[in-house]
Amino acid sequence: MPDQTAARPPSVPPARAAAQSPPAALSARVLDRLTAVTDVTESPTPWGRLTSAAFPGEVGSVRYFTGSGAVASVVHISLVVPAIGLDSHMVFAFGAAEGPLPHFTLDSVHAGEGYAFHLDLVQRADLASHPAYTDAVYGPLTPAHGSAAEIPGLAPAAIGPRQRALMSPWMLVHRADEAALRAVGPIAENYLEHWLALAGDFPPAAADEVKDTDLADRDRRLRAALFSREIDPVWAQVDRLLGPATTDALRGLLITGSPGGAEGDAS
Fold first, then answer.
1. Record: fold of 14-203
2. Reduced to 3 states, what is the DSSP secondary structure of residue 43?
3. CB-based contacts of 239: which residues, under 8 Å, 6+ apart?
4. Among 2, 138, 171, 181, which residue's CB has the most CB atoms within a 10 Å radius?
5. Where are the domains of the chain?
6. What is the full per-residue pLDDT of the chain (267 aa) written as tens digits?
7. pTM score, whole prediction
8. Radius of gyration of the chain (CA)
């Protein structure tokens, strides 16, 4: 794999972040760092400006990047509707279909009077039967994962066991107050920096261990489940905002990594 971590550009200037809401600032900081280091290329999509029949003007945007190395694609979706108190930002960076690199994900949200976030590296192989992979990919995250328990104002979010089964045991998914969400920033950056290091130089022993897994086939099935209407109730809420056609198009982008991808392509 090409070295995608050779350049280490500085973080987003504080003045830029200060002009944004806390969820938007965290998401932008992570997205800017991720796209700069991995050298992915931004491409247009039909959803650069999202609209809603229920609200005037723009209600969100999509940014889409592609790469030719360990990182196959990056999708950033923002939904911002002040009238209903919604300020939601998602970054999902996908490893190459045939590779062992986990997918990086960060959601940062302000809805109503509270905040929430979801952070994880989504595993590409079974962790219980691949200890070398588990230790290399997730072991270094353990201190950062544990430090979340020390942040005042965080409370575990209520998600079902079916959704948890799709993510790693190092997932962090919490509700937060504003101060707590800001305090999560260094943890998100820790997860990101580790993921970038894996993207640049994935440990050979860990990669060798998962050669018994059809990584591309597993990933197709995993992504179909991750973005399934039946498993994740958030898509019903997106339906109400964007309409079913746009919602399914965004699901297709996330499932297949292509703006022209259809939901069935990943099943």
1. oxygen-dependent coproporphyrinogen oxidase (3.40.1500)
2. strand
3. 247
4. 181
5. 14-203
6. 233 333 333 333 333 444 699 999 999 999 999 999 998 999 999 999 999 999 999 999 999 999 999 999 999 999 999 999 999 999 999 999 999 999 999 999 999 889 999 999 999 999 999 999 999 999 999 999 999 999 999 999 989 999 999 999 999 999 999 999 999 999 999 999 999 999 999 999 999 999 999 999 999 999 999 999 999 999 999 999 999 999 999 999 999 999 986 554 432
7. 0.90
8. 18
